[in-house]
Design brief:
N-(1-d-carboxylethyl)-l-norvaline Dehydrogenase, domain 2; Rossmann fold; alpha/beta; 2 domains; single chain; globular
């Protein structure tokens, strides 16, 4: 099976290293600096699943769209940052149009991503991912896995049947050392992760902290509980199911188990704040607010958190712009 990783983010590096180990034919299309690092250094994986190095002779790096369009692929994995996708859709569609039978897997967290490809990629060829890893990218060619909550999963939101090509992809990732499986109910899994991401990500961003700091006070715990209540109502309205029967049950698990387990993890949104980047909050709490409005549900806490994140983000982006123009 020939797999193209469009972009080379931390999750993409971890999955690609596993697929290469399992004997898959893997190629990368990455920006110039990342492509050069991959060609010179290979792929380095560290963290709780152990160390792994994949030599650059084991995969291809395609550093121009012209080179990508000469190749044929069975699967295209989109693993750029979520905030970059809208600007890349036109170029990405060139790759898909050259491989119209390929399965497309979106590795990004969040809800509402598929609308960017509505009418462009057939529903049966578009797959989403549930990422159950805590992961950082200390260098352009490195991925450090800080936590594994269970198997990651791929699946199709619209079609609940098993796709053999994407199932084989999951099996390859699993065989290469990263827990992964196919899910026929990927929507429910994504919303179970939204519960985690819509609490830990924005709060760590606002507090400018690692995850462990989020449960040190009753104030932050009460805010977490309020966010969870609203997200549970949205999940129910959409017809999805999560493993916890009540918001209170999930909040207790989150505060007493999940956050302590990932206490040293620096969330992707906190990394965005450190590096003065646009966050993914539009596809996290912003998505909760949008669905709540559509369904006539309250979303006071999520609206507050969304507005706080966007305000802080706008402030530092404005300052960075002023620096560049000075």
């Amino acid at each position: 099976m020939r797999v193209l990783f469009y972009g080379a983010g931390a999750v993409g590096l971890a999955f690609s290293a596993s697929l290469i180990s399992a004997g898959f034919d893997v190629s990368f299309y990455a920006r110039a600096s990342t492509a050069l690092n991959l060609m010179l250094e290979g792929i380095h994986i560290t963290g709780v699943l152990g160390k792994k190095k994949v030599e650059s002779t084991k995969f291809k790096v395609l550093n121009s769209i012209e080179l990508v369009l000469r190749e044929k692929f069975d699967v295209i994995v989109l693993c750029t940052k979520l905030t970059e996708i809208e600007s890349l859709v036109k170029e990405f569609m060139q790759v898909y149009d050259a491989n119209p039978e390929a399965k497309v897997v979106l590795l990004q967290n969040g809800w509402g991503i598929n609308r960017l490809f509505k009418g462009k990629i057939a529903d049966q060829n578009l797959f989403n991912a549930f990422i159950h890893l805590g992961i950082n990218r200390p260098k352009l060619h490195c991925a450090d896995i800080t936590a594994v909550g269970g198997p990651s999963a791929f699946g199709n939101i619209t079609h609940r049947t098993v796709d053999p090509t994407v199932e084989k992809l999951c099996q390859g990732i699993q065989a290469g050392g990263v827990p992964c499986e196919y899910s026929s109910d990927i929507g429910s899994l994504i919303w179970s992760k939204m519960l985690y991401n819509c609490t830990t990500n924005p709060l760590s961003f606002i507090m400018s902290s690692k995850n462990g700091e989020l449960v040190r006070t009753s104030y932050s715990q009460e805010l977490i509980a309020s966010l969870v209540v609203e997200i549970f109502a949205v999940i129910k309205a959409l017809g999805y199911a999560v493993p916890w029967s009540t918001p209170e049950e999930y909040t207790e698990v989150l505060i007493k188990q999940l956050i302590p387990y990932s206490s040293e993890h620096v969330s992707s949104m906190q990394q965005d704040r450190i590096n003065k980047r646009v966050t993914e909050v539009d596809f996290l709490n912003g998505a909760v607010v949008a669905v709540a409005k559509e369904k006539g549900l309250p979303a006071v806490a999520n609206t507050l958190i969304y507005n706080l994140v966007k305000s802080i983000e706008a402030f530092y982006l404005s300052k960075e712009k002023d620096k560049k123009e000075a």
